């Protein structure tokens, strides 16, 4: 992971390039930074900007899902007992494709009471209706699974079926 270099180091490196006539690579070797960094700092200084570091890490793409917040919440409010996988599938129909984790973070950030709760892969109520009177077994391991511990999306991908 990259580290932000201090403004003092950046200024000393630029001074070595400008005053001593060092190349970018020579200055980079002297101050133990990359030649690309020296080149970038020189471009910033040439534009008249202070060669400060920008923000490191953090969220850079939540604005994409936030831009479609109204559409996501409309689909969710239409049927509140849906699982995240179902929400994901319904959003994909009009062309809104988001990852499972992205939707989970979005819903958790926007929950504001009982109507927007943390959604599990399938709601316990719906899972109970689907599996009422059915004992699930994994066809690979043969182990039983209670309906509370089975996630339908995972169960189908792992080969679980009604026993």
Task: Explain what the structure shows.
This protein has 163 residues and is mainly alpha-helical. The chain has three domains: 40 residues; 49 residues; 39 residues, no CATH class. It has nine helices and three strands, in the order H-H-H-H-H-H-H-H-E-E-H-E. It has a three-stranded antiparallel sheet. Strand 1 and strand 2 form a beta hairpin. It is elongated and about 70 Å long. The two termini are 49 Å apart.
Short summary:
The chain has 163 residues and is mainly alpha-helical.
Principal-axes geometry comes out as elongated
* Total number of domains: 3
| Biggest β-sheet description | 3 strands, antiparallel
From the alpha carbons, calculate the radius of gyration and give it in angstroms.
27 Å
Order of strands, widest sheet: 2-1-3
Q: Provide mean pLDDT, rounded.
A: 75
SSE blueprint:
Elements: H1 7-19, H2 24-31, H3 35-46, H4 62-66, H5 69-78, H6 84-92, H7 100-110, H8 124-130, E1 136-138, E2 144-145, H9 152-157, E3 160-162
Helix pairs in contact: 1-2, 2-3
Features of the shown structure:
single chain, 163 residues, mainly alpha, 3 domains, three-stranded antiparallel sheet, elongated, disordered C terminus
């Amino acid at each position: 992971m990259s580290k932000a270099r201090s403004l003092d180091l950046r200024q000393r490196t630029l001074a070595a390039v400008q005053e001593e006539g060092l190349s970018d690579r020579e200055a980079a070797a002297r101050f133990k930074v990359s030649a690309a960094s020296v080149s970038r700092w020189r471009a910033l200084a040439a534009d008249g900007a202070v060669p400060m570091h920008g923000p490191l890490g953090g969220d850079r793409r939540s604005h994409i899902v936030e831009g479609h917040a109204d559409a996501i919440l409309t689909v969710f409010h239409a049927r509140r007992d849906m699982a995240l996988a179902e929400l994901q599938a319904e959003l994909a129909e009009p062309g809104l494709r988001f990852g499972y984790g992205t939707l989970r973070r979005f819903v958790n950030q926007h929950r504001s009471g009982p109507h927007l709760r943390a959604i599990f892969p399938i709601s316990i109520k719906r899972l109970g209706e689907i599996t009422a009177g059915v004992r699930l077994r994994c066809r690979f391991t043969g182990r039983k699974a209670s309906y509370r511990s089975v996630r339908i999306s995972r169960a189908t991908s792992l080969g679980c079926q009604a026993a």
